[in-house]
Write a structure and sequence with these properties.
Layout (H helix, E strand, L loop, with lengths): L1 H63 L7 H11 L6 E8 L4 E4 L14 H8 L6 E2 L3 E2 L6 E10 L5 E10 H9 L9 E4 L5 E5 L11
Antiparallel strand pairs: 1-2, 1-6, 3-5, 4-5, 5-6, 7-8
Length: 213
């Protein structure tokens, strides 16, 4: 009887160990798979945003120098003609120091909205933004769409604030990439700013976009 109990205990211990080892291997494999997906999505998103930033830098350089020889009434058309089409960029805009939208790539006439209260304008004007600024999710005034706005500061010849150049990025275009990834029912993809503000999520969660995580 004692020998039988001992054999059963040994087999039970070995089975429990095998189950634990399989569990640990599954956890490690799942972590590795999730990490690979996260890294791939992060690289793809970073590449897309870096491309937008290069577009803003080039547009800012052009507006500060080359546009000076162009009649004001033609700047919008030239801006539209020289701006390459990018999937996630809805529109590129030039905004003056007072926050007035002067030129846009989707408008045949200058937009009339004022964005002096928007974070992407205020932080560039006040010097809080260092380089590229990515806004919180908002409703664009030019089109009324869910978007984030990337901005770069414009300076005049004296280094004083002269406005911003912006790129409106449609949130739906960003989340389309994330919707293509099947994570199952217990996982989610979240894109956040450095301060924890949630920019996009798949699957979507009502009221979560724009909140700080």
């Amino acid at each position: 009887v004692a020998l039988g109990v001992l054999v059963i205990a040994v087999f039970g211990t070995l089975s429990a160990y095998d189950a634990y080892r399989s569990y640990r291997h599954e956890i490690i494999a799942t972590d590795r798979e999730i990490g690979n997906v996260a890294n791939a999505l992060a690289e793809q998103t970073a590449w897309s945003l870096q491309s937008v930033d290069l577009l803003l830098l080039d547009t800012a350089r052009w507006y500060r120098s080359d546009s000076l020889s162009i009649p004001p009434e033609r700047i919008g058309a030239v801006l539209k003609a020289r701006t390459p089409k990018m999937r996630i960029v809805r529109q590129v805009m030039i905004i003056d120091a007072q926050g007035n939208q002067r030129y846009g790539t989707l408008e045949s006439t200058p937009p009339t909205h004022n964005v002096a209260d928007r974070s992407y304008f205020v932080d560039q004007r006040d010097g809080a933004a260092k380089g590229l600024f990515i806004s919180e999710p908002l409703i664009s005034r030019s089109e009324g769409r869910d978007a984030i706005v990337l901005s770069r500061r414009l300076d005049d010849d004296t280094g004083s604030f002269a406005g911003v150049v912006t790129a409106i990025v449609d949130l739906d275009d960003i989340t389309q990439l994330y919707r293509a990834v099947n994570l199952g029912t217990s996982s989610a993809i979240q894109l956040m700013r450095d301060d924890g503000t949630l920019l996009a999520r798949n699957p979507p969660m009502s009221g979560s976009t724009g909140q700080k995580v």
